Amino acid sequence: MYARQPRRSWPSPVAAAALSAVVPGLGQIAAGHRRRGWWFVAATALFVVPAVVLLLMVFYVTGLDLAIDIARPFFRNPDLLLVLLAANGVSLAFRAMTVVDAYLLAAEPGPQHPTRTALSVTGLVLVVAATALPHVWVGERNLLVHDLLTHDFVTDPGQAATTTLAPTTTVPSTTLPGGSTTSTTAPPTTTTTAPTTTTTEPAPFADGGRVNVLLLGSDAGIGRTGVRTDTMIIVSVDPATGWTAMVSIPRNLIKLPIPVDHPAYALWPDGAWGDPGNLAWAVYAYGLAHPELFTGANTGGDATKVILGNLVGLEIDYFALVDLQGFTNVIDALGGVDITVTQRVAAPGYVHPGEPPRNIEFLPGTYHMDGHEALAFARIRTGSNDYTRMGRQRCVLEALAREADPVSLLRDLPDLVPAIEASVTTDIPIALIPDFLDLLAKVDTTSIVSIRIMPNAPEFAGTPTSYIAYRISGYGVPNVDLIRERVALATTLPPEDAAVQLNVAGLGSVCGVVPAE
Fold this sequence. Notes:
Elements: H1 13-22, H2 26-30, H3 34-60, H4 64-76, H5 80-106, H6 114-149, E1 169-175, E2 181-186, E3 211-218, E4 229-237, E5 244-248, E6 256-257, E7 272-273, H7 283-289, H8 299-312, E8 318-323, H9 324-333, E9 337-341, E10 345-350, E11 358-362, E12 365-369, H10 371-379, H11 386-403, H12 406-411, H13 413-423, E13 424-426, H14 433-442, E14 449-452, E15 468-472, E16 475-478, H15 480-490, H16 495-502, H17 507-510
Parallel strand pairs: 3-8, 5-14
Antiparallel strand pairs: 1-2, 3-4, 4-5, 6-7, 8-13, 9-12, 10-11, 15-16
């Protein structure tokens, strides 16, 4: 098969193999087998040239729009990634074959000294290994993305099991705050199971209205049990314009209005959820514990969408819950985040779970924070309160949005995927992720209008107006009509006009973000 060629000094077998490792066929051409070499070069160009053109289009012409369009079918059908994995294997086999072929074609005829033969074979093995390395790198990330896109992000293992109820079955008496009991008629429910894959393609933002996503941050902390959503932020985006509003809800509100037609309405006095023993941060846990009252694969998420959405007068489309302790790994996987501190933040003896106490201090300035530092910045209440902390949490979210560029995401997938799977629960369909990336690209993070539901809000300084109507045992009862009125302004006007009407600072100025020139 391999005809003996006249002895030559160039190329050596290892050099010919290395040439074909760079471009399949070059080693064959150098070894004198031009016809075979050019066939290999042509076969390589058939696949490489389109890929190079696509990369050039993405990086220098169309930007991420084309990349998102290319990725869209894989989000809708993740098993297509297995086809890519097979193609990667075929490509590796082809390249390895051309490397070995070039080596054999360039090998000198006749027996060789054993030492020289051993060194030559070792060189060939190293060249084949170097050839395989990028394919292994791509294959690993291919499998990681497939695992990510097929992961069940909806189900919460802490959700109580449900039992099948006949229509209009009366739910057993439930103890109400204060010790009273009541019963209510609940709609039929079914046993909770993991969501099944559907082939129906969701129509992204089909109704033409705003997209409203509830972001929840769960911080169990030291000595705490269960899910406590210490961070609750509603992000509302107009898909047509990119106009964005954020509404921060404090964790210590009570008396949150429940829709009058909801099964949970009759279980609470005045149809308002929460009392001094049930603060707003417990809505998610309440939903998990009462799957007979709420719907979907995650009844905790449904409860927060229903009750918090009703508070602000918005229909919440999706929720995303992040375990803030686990989210430190996500930030670390991204290589940290750049956060501008506008006011001194400090906490002597701050404790991060699993670590000894340490003194934390951030003076005004810009910091590149790792996961633990960013979490401390978002959590610290020493010298401040829940409401100023809410502002810092919004700044961390904004910083993450700026840091998560596609190159770093691809590079850090081995650390990023496990961290995301361990710390994120959401009902956003995987198939819609490309549409959300399109949506995110429209958002100007420097002109987001932001409302914080808090007592003594700066925008009401010198007036009797307040987001808090009155207090019970020190806990605020929301001024629902005012909240809904102002949220309606924030979600119907351009952000700059809304900021003026509402007398609030834009998120850019709050977080020290300088608009791009």
